[in-house]
Amino acid sequence: MSELVANCPRCGASHMTFDLLNQVPVSIRYDWQYWIEVFCVCRNCNKPTIFLVAQKKYNDSKYIKEGLSKLTISANQVVEVKRHIGIQDTSAQEPPEYLPENIENIFREGAACMAIGCNNAAATMFRLCLDLATQSLLPEEGEGLNSKVRRNLGLRLPWLIDNKILPEALRELSSCIKDDGNDGAHEGILGEEDAADILDFTFILLQRLYTEPKRLELAAERRNKRREKSE
Predict the structure, then answer these.
(1) What domains does the chain contain, in order, with CATH numbers?
(2) Which residues form the DUF4145 domain (predicted)?
(3) Cα dihedral sign for 36, 42, 45, 47?
């Protein structure tokens, strides 16, 4: 039986040893890194917890495939504990693929807020995703590009669409991001439909900026490899 050291969310014990009994791989990132949910029992309170863990090193996938519960070393040498599985994972929207880590983490936080009905908090997180994703799209200078446009997401998005940096097809969806910069979130008046509109726009924009280009890049790499093998 393998061991995992983590903080116990059930009894509050820090750096406690758990018996790692089973695992379920839930995703693969960067084409090599396994993310796994592991079922563990705390040796202090004897209560079970499911942890989300991620493979640490590229060459350690063999331990994942053989089963972490069969390890004769601490599982912490192979995987990093990300968090425990809780109510925030209830029907939460998965983020698009190939996002930068910081944006993915913020999206997941927003999705977790949506799953438990915290619409204003969710909208704030999704706005932050959009803010981070679009800041780098702004050129150093351009007609009508002033400090207010740079600072205000509600003004920045139409400017990017007007200047064909973002596709025109996103204009109607972007109407959920208002010019006042808070969409009602700061007043705490957003409903479920309002937050869902912002989620939809955020998901589609992130797909356009990160997922689709990466998929095309990977497809080109596969094509080149096939051509190399046929030569």
Answers:
(1) 2-85 (no CATH), 101-216 (1.20.120)
(2) 112-202
(3) positive
